[in-house]
Amino acid sequence: MATVVRVKVPGGAENLELTGVELAAPAPDEIRLRQTAIGVNFIDIYQRSGLYPLPGRIPGVEAVGIVTAAGADVTDVAVGDRIAYAGAPVGAYASERNLPAWRAIKLQPALSDESVASVFVKGITAFMLLNRVYPVQAGSKVLVHSAAGGLGQILTRWASRRGASVIGTVGSDAKAELARAAGAHHVIVGRDADFAQAVARLTDSRGVDVAYDGVGGTTLAKTLDCVRPFGVVASIGQSAGPIPKLYVEEIGPRRSLSLARPSVMAFMNEREDYQRAAAAVLTALAKRELVGVGTVYALADAAQAHRDLENGRSRGALYLVP
């Protein structure tokens, strides 16, 4: 019997419960995984709260583990392989689970389970944002909100390594140090800081080429003022709450902006994109271009992990261990 964390009813973290489920034998195109480290992401909170649908009521979109069984038609993965996966179907908050075999990405021995679980989906998201949504390169000017968070640090680190100039926003001086360590060239500190004015000063009123906003709430409207004409604003979450209605006139023609609302889940449904991004993330980890460091929680403490992530008490990535 597998131990899982299930959402009793959509709502707060108190609605997560630990329970057991019987697993069916893997289908012909499936594998069974004994999971060793499970990544925690804001999408899990959106699933738990009811903002996003959650078939099966078990949240989670990524994990690392050992293959313990394989369906009849599975040829690329074998029992005993250590693999990572991300994407649909959701249900990663579990000690064991079945999943489509094509999701499995084999891991090098040098990569620890914990390091991969800390950065896998966040790294794939960063790859999508830095390549598909806007091609960041040397000389690009980039704004990263929540630059000390798990995704924020990866975006900052990868963009700065490409030669981009990165401006990060954070909520405290302690988090500012994390953003600088990740490669941010300028850090704007304070939840109530006038970051649009600061960005104007830092860019000689030109604005950045691309801004990544996972904060949502009232922040997105202010972020529009930070981006140059014909630049891109990527809305990638709403950790601060729902985003008020945004009218098309706020994007252009005066500002002449492109507004993106990309879904990493949709991106990962494209097999070639998923495998290319996954390979890039694991290569960056092996070369230490990305740092897979996270805060660990027991699977039974998933509710506390959610509270810490929602309330901004966490630094960097979070992961669960069964």
Q: Any overview of this molecule?
A:
It is built from nine helices and 15 strands. The protein is of the alpha/beta class and 322 residues long. The strands form three sheets. Strands 3, 4, 5, 6, 7, 14 and 15 form a seven-stranded mixed sheet that branches. Strands 10-9-8-11-12-13 form a six-stranded parallel sheet, with helices on both faces. Strands 1-2 form a two-stranded antiparallel ribbon. It starts with a strand and ends with a strand.
Which key features would you list for this structure?
single chain, 9 helices, 322 residues, seven-stranded mixed sheet, 15 strands, six-stranded parallel sheet, Quinone Oxidoreductase, Chain A, domain 1, 2 domains, Rossmann fold, alpha/beta
Question: In short, what is this structure?
Answer:
The protein is of the alpha/beta class and 322 residues long.
User: Any idea what the CATH superfamily of the largest domain is called?
Assistant: Medium-chain alcohol dehydrogenases, catalytic domain
User: What is the strand content?
Assistant: 25-35%
> What kind of oligomer do you see?
single chain
Query: Residue-averaged pLDDT, rounded?
Result: 95
